[in-house]
């Protein structure tokens, strides 16, 4: 007997279906729920139109300080009692801030979800926000950011963002602010942000076995005491590219790796090119067998991993390649990376590569969406981007039907090798001279 | 408001489990769940860095990389292309105990996943080349730089292990290995490593999700049945230890770190024992969540520790007493000495102050959620069953873990703390900001 020599053919595919979605309007707000029969855990996310983009200039990080202040006690109980009540249900509060939204999430065994949502709403709607607590949380956040910024990456990210979005106010600054802007956040800023943006009903997303969940009761818990109409979304920022490539050095003395962040602006999430752009980026730097990972990791051994992707929010988009490469090969790694981006821009993708990208992206819709948390996140995307309940079925079909021509055209339209900003965070004493070949070199101001 | 209490779990694994063993010794575990059209294929090989002899640290993990570089009927790079190109997610991990490989696929590709796994179990050696080894050695050295060398405190785990376990102990060295040993790795050693350990009788194949047991058993025979068993696989060095460390150990590091930080660690009990269940509950009482003692007393109460960087956790190792790790980072203006005194007080409180009902219920509720989260995906379930089959000989034993946690009493926690958390057996690792000496 020997090993089976030939690759088996696939069996019959079961049709794809996103979990059944149920919507109710009750108690002044909307609940969007996905039914996951048999799931023991359930997740809920209170989604509020209170993203970082709503912060005041110079006070970037206000929403994050608020998110971290929510658990410092509510009008009903102090912080210790709150922690005990929520964690006694097996739940932990997961407040988060992104460009488009402020989320307050909880997960718990199904029968305990209503209690967890009640407590999450209590923190989101009626936090105590004692000035001394808020000031302490702010100071702790400054320290936490300094800890984070001591790692490779955040300073390079900030330098790239500052360069790409320099003329776009809030979008030119890091999502969670930097140590300086957070230090400038006042108690009044935090209270005002809460008052202005966290008291509208928002939307409650629920994922779990709905046979055991009372959506009306969840709505009551989430929306009690709220008022106000949904906000009008602001328009996209547009795509502005510089007229030539530039390089920014972020010095990190003694670093054994150089952290690369190469990027330029791209359309926002609503672009009709979303699917072909995603597939082009998958071929270039998304899949393990992508052009970048194959060359830079698997052939050259310069890195543990390299990724290229488009990140798109409601108002903005950007293309980015990210990697950590051994210091000694910084210039060769950048050269090879630029070569693969340029090749993709000029020549597009091949059918063989696209076939991998299509199937992978389509398959991920079932493979990576198994948990209540993942499904609740998928529901949130529907709300943030105004997509219909059957969107994931449509998306899957669009992935599978994308043609080489369409994806190659998207690569040509939305990659711009000669207008990239190259941010390199590494040991300046070693790498500065060799960066000159990549265009105007400047030192980062971060 | 009266808070409802967590439901009492009668089983932590309410899905079917069926098992068989092929003639070549491969154990096959199947857990059918037709809810979603996905299936996970998971292989646990009972080999990890604990098997590495001196001079070969990092070899088990470097070998894991080589398993993705082609085999007898799978060309270089084709493995990843076939899994992702058919919609799947895949990965592999190596730790001191074992190496696991897993892919979750749309279920019509079950057979493909089994074929790929069988080909690299039975046919890796003919495809292994010097070029592949040289390339992946560089990738792993970059992994070491990225994860351990280029980040503040990144080497803590590398420093803790030799303080916790004596020279020659299978957990004395870290899985990532040393640069020197990685540089010395030669091709023949890896060929021999595969022939020795990557045997059907040293592995458990687990399939979870949209597939039935009869179908999987037949496919396992079809794809893996031809692979010969390896007789007399040598065990790893014995990890038995006489008890907690006989004396404390301490290392003080000055490095480019942003704030003073402390790691306290103890050898406790092997994963899977009642002692370790008590330690799991204890770690949650001590350092998991805002209601934990560490958070309440040092981050919230005394306000000497940074709230985002305080906690305690056990590392679930089964072949010797597993470590409990406790860590805290000083707030601005707080000295290492103040922080260490605070940490020591909280550690002592586990012996002096009985765990209250509220603390115990909180810990058990969090562990209950964590358990259900772990088994909420086909991949999480498959890895859990593979672990219990490999380490305890019975995948169904996984169903008991949650109930065993919930059965732990306050007395159990105190007894465990008294036995293994005394300062006399403590490992202390401190970091101070400054120029490395």
Structure overview:
Chain A has 446 residues and is an alpha+beta fold. Chain A has two domains: 21-223, Cytochrome Bc1 Complex, Chain A, domain 1, CATH 3.30.830.10; 246-443, Metalloenzyme, LuxS/M16 peptidase-like (Cytochrome Bc1 Complex, Chain A, domain 1). Chain A has helices at residues 62-69, 79-87, 113-125, 131-149, 154-164, 179-184, 187-197, 215-223, 274-286, 291-299, 330-347, 351-367, 372-384, 391-401, 404-414, 428-431; strands at 21-26, 29-35, 41-48, 94-97, 102-109, 203-208, 246-251, 257-266, 303-312, 317-326, 421-426, 440-443. In chain A, the strands form two sheets. In chain A, strands 1-2-6-3-5-4 form a six-stranded mixed beta sheet, with helices on both faces. Chain A has a six-stranded mixed beta sheet with strand order 9-10-8-11-7-12, sandwiched between helices. In chain A, a hairpin with a 4-residue loop joins β4 and β5. In chain A, α1 crosses α7 (187-197) and α9 packs across α15 (404-414). Chain A starts with 20 loop residues before the first strand and ends with a strand. The model of chain A has no long low-confidence stretch (mean pLDDT 96). With 437 residues, chain B is α+β, with helices and mostly antiparallel strands. Chain B has two domains: 18-224, Cytochrome Bc1 Complex, Chain A, domain 1 (2-Layer Sandwich), CATH 3.30.830; 249-433, Cytochrome Bc1 Complex, Chain A, domain 1, CATH 3.30.830. Chain B is built from 15 helices and eleven strands. Chain B has helices at residues 59-66, 78-84, 110-122, 130-149, 156-164, 179-184, 187-197, 213-224, 274-287, 293-301, 336-352, 357-374, 378-392, 398-406, 410-420, and strands at 18-21, 27-32, 38-45, 89-94, 99-106, 203-209, 249-255, 261-267, 311-314, 323-329, 427-433. In chain B, the strands form two sheets. Chain B has a six-stranded mixed beta sheet with strand order 1-2-6-3-5-4, with helices on both faces. A five-stranded mixed beta sheet of chain B has the order 7-11-8-10-9, sandwiched between helices. In chain B, a hairpin with an 8-residue loop joins β9 (311-314) and β10 (323-329). In chain B, α9 (274-287) packs across α12 (357-374) and α10 (293-301) packs antiparallel against α11 (336-352). Chain B starts with 17 loop residues before the first strand and ends with a strand. Chain A: Residues 185-358 form the Peptidase M16 C-terminal domain. Chain A: This is Insulinase family protein. Chain A: InterPro entries: Metalloenz_LuxS/M16, MPP/UQCRC_Complex, Pept_M16_N, Peptidase_M16_C. Chain A: It comes from Actinoplanes flavus. Chain A: Residues 31-146 form the Peptidase M16 N-terminal domain.
């Amino acid at each position: 007997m020997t090993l089976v020599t030939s690759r088996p053919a696939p069996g019959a595919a079961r049709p794809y279906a996103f979990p059944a979605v149920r919507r109710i309007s009750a108690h002044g707000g909307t609940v969007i729920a996905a039914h996951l029969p048999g799931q023991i855990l359930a997740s809920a996310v209170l989604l509020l139109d209170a993203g970082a983009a709503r912060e005041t200039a110079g006070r970037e990080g206000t929403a994050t300080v608020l998110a971290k202040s929510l658990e410092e006690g509510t009008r009903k109980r102090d912080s210790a009692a709150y922690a005990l009540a929520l964690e006694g249900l097996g739940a932990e509060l997961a407040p988060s801030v992104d460009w488009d939204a402020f989320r307050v999430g909880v997960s718990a065994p199904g029968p305990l979800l209503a209690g967890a949502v009640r407590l999450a709403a209590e923190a989101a709607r009626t936090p105590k926000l004692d000035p001394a607590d808020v000031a302490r949380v702010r100071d702790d956040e400054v320290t936490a950011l300094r800890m984070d910024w001591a790692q490779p990456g955040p300073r390079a990210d900030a330098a790239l963002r500052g360069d790409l979005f320099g003329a776009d106010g809030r979008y030119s600054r890091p999502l969670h602010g930097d140590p300086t802007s957070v230090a400038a956040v006042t108690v009044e800023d935090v209270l005002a942000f809460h008052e202005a943006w966290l008291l509208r009903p928002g939307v409650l997303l629920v994922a779990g076995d709905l046979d055991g969940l009372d959506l009306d009761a969840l709505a009551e818990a989430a929306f009690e005491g709220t008022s106000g109409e949904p906000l009008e979304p602001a328009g996209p920022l547009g795509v502005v590219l510089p007229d030539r490539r530039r390089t920014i050095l972020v010095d990190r003395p003694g670093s054994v790796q150089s952290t690369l962040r190469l990027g330029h602006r791209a359309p926002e999430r609503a672009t009709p090119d979303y699917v072909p752009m995603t597939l082009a980026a998958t071929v270039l730097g998304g899949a393990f067998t992508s052009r970048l990972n194959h060359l830079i990791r698997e052939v050259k051994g310069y890195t543990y991993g390299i990724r290229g992707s488009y990140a798109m929010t409601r108002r903005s988009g950007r293309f980015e390649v990210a990697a950590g490469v051994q210091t000694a090969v910084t210039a060769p790694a950048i050269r090879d990376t630029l070569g693969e981006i340029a090749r993709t821009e000029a020549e597009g993708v091949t059918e063989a590569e696209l076939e991998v990208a299509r199937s992978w992206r389509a398959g991920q819709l079932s493979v990576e969406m198994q948990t209540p948390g993942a499904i609740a996140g998928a529901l949130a995307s529907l709300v943030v981007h105004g997509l219909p309940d059957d969107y994931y079925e449509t998306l899957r079909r669009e992935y599978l039907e994308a043609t080489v021509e369409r994806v190659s055209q998207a690569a040509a339209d939305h990659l711009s090798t000669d207008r990239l900003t190259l941010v390199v965070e590494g040991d300046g004493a070693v790498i500065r001279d060799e960066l000159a070949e990549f265009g105007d070199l400047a030192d980062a101001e971060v | 408001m009266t808070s409802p209490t967590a439901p009492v779990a009668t089983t932590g694994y309410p899905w079917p489990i069926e098992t068989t063993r092929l003639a070549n010794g491969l154990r096959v575990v199947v857990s059918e769940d037709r809810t979603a059209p996905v299936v996970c294929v998971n292989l646990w090989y009972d080999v990890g860095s604990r098997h590495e002899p001196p001079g070969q640290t990092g070899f088990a993990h470097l070998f894991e990389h080589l398993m993705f570089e082609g085999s007898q009927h799978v060309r270089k790079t084709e493995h990843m292309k076939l899994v992702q190109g058919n919609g799947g997610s895949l990965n592999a991990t190596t730790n001191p105990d074992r190496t696991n490989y897993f892919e979750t696929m749309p279920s019509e590709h079950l057979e493909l996943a089994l074929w790929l796994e069988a080909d690299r179990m039975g046919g890796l050696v003919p495809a292994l080349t010097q070029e592949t080894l040289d390339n992946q050695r560089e990738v792993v050295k970059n992994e070491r730089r990225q994860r351990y060398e280029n980040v503040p405190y990144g080497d803590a785990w590398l420093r803790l292990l030799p303080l916790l376990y004596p020279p020659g102990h299978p957990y004395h060295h870290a899985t990532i290995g040393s640069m020197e040993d990685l540089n010395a790795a030669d091709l023949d050693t890896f060929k021999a490593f595969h022939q020795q350990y990557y045997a059907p009788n040293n592995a458990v194949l687990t399939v979870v999700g949209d597939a039935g047991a009869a179908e999987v058993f037949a496919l396992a025979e079809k794809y893996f049945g031809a692979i010969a068993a390896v007789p007399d696989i040598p065990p790893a060095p014995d990890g038995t230890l006489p008890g907690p460390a006989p004396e404390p150990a301490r290392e003080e590091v000055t490095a480019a770190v942003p704030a003073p930080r402390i790691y306290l660690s103890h050898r406790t009990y092997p994963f899977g024992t009642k002692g370790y269940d008590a330690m799991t509950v204890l770690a949650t009482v001590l350092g998991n969540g805002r209601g934990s003692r560490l958070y309440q007393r040092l981050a919230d109460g005394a306000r000497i520790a940074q709230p985002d960087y305080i906690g305690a956790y056990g590392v679930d190792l089964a072949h010797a007493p597993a470590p409990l790790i406790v860590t805290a980072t000083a707030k601005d203006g707080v000295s290492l000495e103040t922080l260490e005194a605070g940490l020591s007080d909280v550690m002592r409180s586990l012996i002096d102050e009985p765990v209250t009902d509220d603390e115990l219920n909180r810990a058990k509720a969090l562990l209950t959620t964590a358990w259900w989260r772990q088994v909420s995906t086909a991949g999480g379930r498959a890895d859990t069953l593979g672990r219990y089959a490999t380490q305890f000989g019975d995948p169904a034993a996984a169903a008991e873990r949650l109930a065993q946690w919930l059965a732990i009493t306050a007395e159990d926690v105190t007894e465990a703390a008294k036995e293994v958390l005394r300062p006399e057996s403590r490992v202390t690792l401190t970091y101070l900001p400054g120029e490395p000496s």
